[in-house]
Amino acid sequence: MLFDLPDHQTLYAALLARDGRFDGQAFVCVASTGVFCRLTCPARKPKQENCTFFSTIGECIEAGYRPCKRCHPLQAAALADPAIAALLHALDDRPDLRWSERHIEKLGYDLSTVRRSFKRQFGMTFLEMARQRRLREGFETLASGGKVITAQHEASFASPSAFRSAFARLLGCAPADLRADRLLRATWIPTPLGDMIAVSSRSHLHLLEFVDRKGLPAELARLKAASREEIGFGTLPPSEQAAKELADYFAARSARFLTPLAPAGSAFTQQVWHALRAIPAGETRSYSDIARQIGRPSAVRAVARANGANQIALMIPCHRVIGADGALTGYGGGLWRKQRLIEIERHLRQTRKETGA
Fold first, then answer.
1. For the chain, does the N or the C end have fewer beta carbons within 10 angstroms?
2. Which entry of 37, 51, 68, 173 is annotated as an active-site residue?
């Protein structure tokens, strides 16, 4: 996890210096290229705001990044295990293949041994790795306006039903349900911490979440039920504004979000979210702090529930709430993201102090 590693500035300095001390202990994911690298990679160095660091290859792959073809971050594991090397080579040769256990057995490998080896080295099985690579191709096609059948073929799914099933696990609906003529429309927003999905109407942003959040399908279902509207694909003015503001935020230029929001919640929940938006960037509060601020000091658990029910990440900054003992506590987007967001905001605050902005 990111918060077990040195801080972002130290790791970025190591990347610039190609410092071998962190080789194999940390990996950099580059939002502008969609690849992840060793810190010793000889490629041209990315901007700091485009970098996210992970301690394992599995985390990089799960966040949607592909291995770099210059520094080959999978190579160390491949050299340690000939079976891993052979299967990774086969995957590179046939990324379009719908890999199955039969293919692994046909290459002469024991299924349980391969499963254990990949889990140990990457935190995922070989078949999960192959599936992740194919799914990303399909989702990128849909996000750019491609047809469902095209996305299915790009993702190398043998049948429409298999592709629909995989898509539904991520977003809770079939890809064909996301038509372009809906009043609510979803669009992908790439960030240094992974892709986000934004759902907006012509006037307001209704949802902003990281695509890999496990609760995303349920959140989309609640949004559809509350609005009595289906969701389509497409970019509308609020999501365009959100993308620009997020770019400034991750570049540590500004933490101001002026995108008009339409969060759905009870009067109490809305009160909690209003208090969250009042927390200055670079500062944190505890659940009990928020409870006292809204005049409900005994409602700490209710505040925690309202915090967790937030469907507009970053702009309603639930990541600024930590435990009374200073622990990060839970975060739907992952604790590593929560830590990184707090670091970005502290860096922005310090920069403002130094420049007098």
1. C
2. 37
Beta carbons within 10 angstroms of residue 186's beta carbon: 25
CB neighbours (10 Å) of residue 32?
12
Tokens coding 37: 């690298």
The count of other CB atoms within 10 Å of the CB of residue 58 is 17
Catalytic residue status for 37 = yes
Helix spans in the chain (H): 8-17, 57-62, 75-80, 82-93, 101-106, 111-122, 126-143, 148-154, 160-171, 216-227, 237-250, 267-277, 287-293, 300-308, 335-355
Question: pLDDT tens for residues 115-146?
Answer: 888 877 676 788 877 876 676 667 666 666 67
Active-site residue identified among 29, 68, 173, 318: 318
More confident residue, 30 or 170: 30
CA distance 281 to 174: 38
**Residue-range domains of the chain with CATH:** 1-70 (3.40.10.10), 74-172 (1.10.10.60), 267-355 (1.10.10.10)
Helix (H, G, I), strand (E, B) or coil at 207: strand
Per-residue pLDDT reduced to its tens digit, 244-291: 999 889 877 888 999 999 988 889 999 999 999 999 998 999 999 999
Burial (CB count within 10 angstroms: exposed 0-12, middle 13-18, buried 19+), residue 278? exposed
Contacts of residue 190, Cβ cutoff 8 Å, sequence gap at least 6 = 31, 196
- Is residue 239 predicted with pLDDT exceeding 90? yes
